[in-house]
Design a protein that fits this description.
The chain has 277 residues and is mainly β. It has strands at 2-9, 15-20, 25-29, 32-36, 41-44, 51-56, 62-67, 73-80, 83-88, 93-100, 105-114, 121-127, 132-137, 142-146, 151-156, 163-168, 175-179, 182-186, 192-197, 206-211, 222-227, 231-238, 241-248, 252-258, 261-266, 270-276. It contains no helices and 26 strands.
């Protein structure tokens, strides 16, 4: 039995990130990421002057603004409170050292640019647990980078269109990449495990992806994708590949699965909760 309810609603526009903390669920707008939950600090990008900003999501106060001289920023990742990763039109993945206190940004310094893509980088994912950065590009590839060494690991090829979404399983290190309506599952070493076409219509391009973080052997592990046709798809991993079931709802832009609860955010700033009972 699936129960749907409206959890919250943003006034500023599309939902960009949903984070489940110990005592609260934090919902941020598009182009915003939680940097430090203990300081209620977020990182934001996508401004017309190519600047970025740090702010407090509890108060809404902007702490600092900085100019990024690496073209237009399309995506970012924050694997820990002292690291911000950005990428975009320049095709370069930039890793920054940052230091943020409760009321100000004291440092934002470029640690290293990572070169490898030949076209704009459209999405990023990072895992401190597995020391891994994954970047997806319009050049139809993903690149795996070592987060600690900031070095190239391998390339994920075989996508048929621009990469639109990425996710890393914190338990296993497995990577999900999405391009158009297709979803690909890889090992953290770059071996393709399986792929599937999730489409059932002409506008089924995947916009966002999330996955459960259960034990590696648990058959209940799923991959959840939000698509441009307004459908959230739950994909169960099995020995023969990926089989899909469907949940129909309004257009969604981001999602997150936590235990028996699925939280999804849409383009109108609404966050819905699907509960399995």
């Amino acid at each position: 039995l699936l129960i749907l309810s409206l959890a919250t609603e943003l006034a500023g526009g599309p939902v960009g990130q949903i984070i489940c903390l110990e005592k609260e669920v934090v919902v941020l707008e598009k182009n915003q990421l939680v940097l430090s939950p203990s300081l209620s600090c977020f990182f934001s990008w996508g401004f017309p002057d190519n600047s970025c900003a740090f702010g407090n999501y509890a108060t809404g106060k902007v702490l600092s603004e900085r100019l990024c001289d690496w073209g237009e920023t399309y995506c970012a990742a924050c694997p820990n409170p002292t690291t911000v990763i950005t990428a975009g039109s320049s095709a370069v993945v930039c890793v920054w050292d940052v230091a943020v206190s409760k009321d100000k940004l004291s440092r934002m310094k470029l640690r290293q640019p990572l070169y490898g893509h030949t076209d704009a980088v459209t999405c990023l994912a990072a895992s401190e647990v597995h020391s891994l950065i994954v970047s997806g590009s319009r050049d139809l590839t993903c690149i795996l980078w070592d987060l600690e060494e900031l070095s190239y690991i391998t390339q994920l090829a075989g996508h048929t269109t621009s990469i639109s979404a990425l996710a890393i399983n914190e338990k296993t290190g497995e990577i999900v990449s999405c391009a158009g309506p297709s979803m690909y599952l890889w090992t953290m070493k770059g071996q393709l495990l399986t792929c599937a076409d999730t489409s059932c219509g002409p506008q089924a391009d995947i916009l966002c992806v999330g996955l459960t973080q259960r034990h590696e052997w648990d058959a209940r592990n799923v991959i959840v994708t939000g698509c441009a046709d307004g459908v959230v798809r739950v994909s169960f991993l099995c020995a023969r590949g990926v089989s899909c079931s469907f949940l129909f709802c309004s257009l969604y832009s981001i999602l997150l699965w936590s235990h028996a609860t699925l939280l999804v955010g849409d383009a109108w700033g609404r966050v819905f909760t699907w509960t399995c009972e």
